[in-house]
């Protein structure tokens, strides 16, 4: 370039160069990042004050097409800086070999991203399937427990009926008085455990 009398006239030319060649675009970004980090990491922060930097003017001075992503700029707004409307990822290197390597790297990134998305989806579906299977197992256990409880109730009712029948047979055969019958009938109503009160001899008499 020929020396320019007005430095401001260089900015449009530099931006055009950055749009035409990714090497120029990346050099501007690296220069801006280095300048900002030099302020952020300088020991004499009383003189080199990061918060006093005019980031928008600095970015314009480096002919940036957009603001870089860096911790020092996080959460800040730059109304005086107008980025380009195009996607800067589409800017290619003039050097064909560098561009070929970049495209290969981008393709690898897209492939890894797709694989990661597939893994996340698989893990999500697997977790959902596992949760569903767990619910089904719990449901079956509850149903089984309910059936067992119903069987227990039926067994208790049947045992109580058998006990009452035995007592009635004893009463009819004269082996038991009405007072004893009523007493044992009430005792049998308390549960199967009261069956032991009948004694082994009483049970043998039922079979005769």
From TrEMBL:
Listed InterPro entries = SPB4-like_CTE (IPR025313)
The alphabetical list of record keywords is: ATP-binding, Helicase, Hydrolase, Nucleotide-binding
Q: Where is the composition biased (Basic and acidic residues)?
A: 106-120
Domain (ATP-dependent rRNA helicase SPB4-like C-terminal extension): residue spans on this chain: 9-72
UniProt-annotated stretches for the region Disordered: 106-158
Q: Where is the composition biased (Basic residues)?
A: 121-144
| Molecular functions per Gene Ontology | helicase activity; hydrolase activity
Pfam families assigned to the protein according to its UniProt record, in alphabetical order? CTE_SPB4
State the SMART domains in the record: DUF4217 (SM01178)
Transferase in keyword set: no
Is the Lipoprotein keyword given for this protein?
no
Protein name per its UniProtKB record = DEAD-box helicase 55
State the organism named in the record.
Vombatus ursinus
């Amino acid at each position: 370039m020929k020396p320019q009398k007005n430095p401001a006239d260089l900015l449009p030319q530099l931006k055009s160069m950055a749009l035409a060649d990714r090497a120029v675009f990346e050099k501007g970004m690296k220069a801006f990042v280095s300048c900002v980090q030099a302020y952020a990491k300088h020991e004499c922060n009383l003189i080199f004050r990061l918060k006093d930097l005019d980031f928008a003017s600095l970015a314009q001075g480096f002919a940036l097409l957009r603001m870089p992503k860096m911790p020092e700029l996080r959460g800040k707004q730059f109304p005086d800086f107008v980025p380009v409307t195009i996607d800067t990822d589409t800017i290619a290197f003039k050097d064909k070999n560098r561009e070929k390597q970049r495209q290969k790297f981008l393709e690898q990134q897209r492939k890894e991203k797709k694989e990661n998305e597939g893994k996340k989806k698989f893990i999500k579906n697997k977790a959902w399937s596992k949760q569903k299977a767990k619910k089904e197992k719990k449901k079956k256990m509850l149903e089984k427990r309910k059936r067992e409880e119903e069987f227990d109730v039926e067994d208790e009712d049947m045992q109580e009926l058998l006990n009452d029948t035995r007592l009635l047979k004893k009463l009819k055969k004269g082996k038991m008085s009405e007072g004893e019958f009523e007493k044992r009938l009430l005792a049998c109503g308390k549960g199967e455990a009261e069956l032991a009160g009948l004694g082994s001899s009483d049970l043998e008499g039922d079979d005769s």
